[in-house]
C-alpha cells in the first residue's frame, strides 16, 4: 500500500511538471491516433511505422484544418492546397511504408471512379 501511494505521488508530481511546461511534450490529437490505428489495422503496420506515422498524421490533420479555415471561401485554392498537402503526405509515407503498403494507402485515398451506368459499345 505504501508503494502504491509513493507511485501515485510520483505520477502527480510528473503531471504537475508537464502542466508547467506544456510545450515539452506534445500529446497527439485523438483524431491522429485514431487515423494511425486505422492505418495500422488496414495496412498491417509494425510498431516503428506506427510511431513514425503518428506525427505525420498529426501534421496532415493540422494542415487540413488550417487549409479549410484559411480558404473556406475559396474552393479552388482550398482544393489545390489540399492536393499539395496530400502529395507531400504521400511522399513522406513512401519513406515509411513498404511499396505494398503504399499502394494500399493510395488505393484507399483515391478509390477508382465509378463507371458510367451505360457503356455504349455498339
Whole-Å distance between the termini?
A: 83 Å
Main pleated-sheet profile? none
Average predicted confidence as pLDDT: 79
Helix fraction bin: over 70%
Count, helices: 5
Overview of this protein structure:
It is a single chain. This protein is an all-alpha fold and 122 residues long. Helix content is 72%, strand content 0%. It has 5 helices and no strands. It has helices at 2-20, 30-43, 47-70, 75-94, 99-109. α2 crosses α3 (47-70) and α3 (47-70) packs antiparallel against α4 (75-94). The protein is globular, with a radius of gyration of 21 Å. The chain starts with a helix and ends in a 13-residue tail after the last helix.
Key phrases:
mainly alpha, globular, 72% helix, 122 residues, single chain
Topology overview:
Blueprint: H1 2-20, H2 30-43, H3 47-70, H4 75-94, H5 99-109
Helix pairs in contact: 2-3, 3-4
